[in-house]
Amino acid sequence: MFSEVRQGILPLALRNIKRRGDLERAGLLIESLAKHWRDSKPFELLIVAPNRDADLLRTELPRFEKIQVSVLRESDFFPAFSPFYFMTGWYRQQILKLQVPALLGFGGYLTLDSDVCCVGDFDSRTFLEHGRALSRWEPKQHHDWWRHAAEVVGVPYDPKAHGLSVTPNILHGDIARQTMDRLGGGRFDAVTSLLLWKIRKPRHTAWTEYSLYTSTAEINGTLYDYHVDWDTCYSADVHLFSEASCVWGADDFERLVKLPNGTDPGGKFIIVQSHARIPLQQVRDYCLSFAG
């Protein structure tokens, strides 16, 4: 079960053409966490990056007393010829969000991307209810990856059920470890098995980290030992994420920036999609305008 959530993981690969933009977005995420973290101990953010990016991230990211940032290399967790490196960046990020917390013995942790910003105050117990996490959920019938992941894990697929939704979310290292152990229980290690499943479904999303995690917890009977059920989370007073305040395109941004400063965003985290091509200073002004 959860005792606290004071760790987060951010897989981050700086794209060759726009390395500075990716770096600055990660810096804004860290700044927003520093603004809204309300615990007596620091929030621990682990960034896992390709070897080529690690040194730049260590020297250029902003530092705040309340946020303890560590940067590790992908090679710290995967040897040179690992099948991990044969996957696209999107799938590699998914594996990192499970494998690294499992190996490092994380408890409860936040999964983050550089497009995410914190817009509401929280501490290590904000998202906990009687030792279980108020995570994000989604109906399984909305995405084919739930059916595919059920096949990978070996659990029956129920389209009427709900599973943990996409980043940002709250996971636990225990179930991440159970997931990787189950996937590596046959002739291959977990990463090799996932690569083989991806090769079998080249035109589909063969799995996501959250569908693998949920499916494993379901078959082990541990899902609701660690996570508050989806119906309760939907109606809870505290929400990890606000869909209404996210920015997916320029038209969203034009509408949202007209709201008065300090407006309740409806959740503690939002996404400002980098593909919307909104200047970073405008993104920063918007994200930091929400009152604590």
Task: Record the SSE blueprint.
Blueprint (H helix, E strand, L loop, with lengths): L4 E7 L7 H18 L6 E7 L1 H10 L6 E7 L15 H16 L3 E4 L4 E3 L9 E2 L2 E2 L3 E3 L5 H9 L8 E3 L4 E4 H11 L6 H11 L8 H12 L2 H4 L3 H6 L14 H7 L12 E3 L8 H8 L5
Helix pairs in contact: 3-5, 4-7, 5-6, 5-7
Task: Describe, in plain words, how this protein is organized in 3D.
This protein is an alpha/beta fold and 292 residues long. Helix 3 packs across helix 5 and helix 5 (173-183) packs across helix 6 (190-200). The mean pLDDT is 92. It has a single domain, classed as Spore Coat Polysaccharide Biosynthesis Protein SpsA, Chain A. Strand 1, helix 1 and strand 2 (43-49) form a beta-alpha-beta unit. It has helices at 19-36, 51-60, 89-104, 145-153, 173-183, 190-200, 209-220, 223-226, 230-235, 250-256, 280-287, and strands at residues 5-11, 43-49, 67-73, 108-111, 116-118, 128-129, 132-133, 137-139, 162-164, 169-172, 269-271.
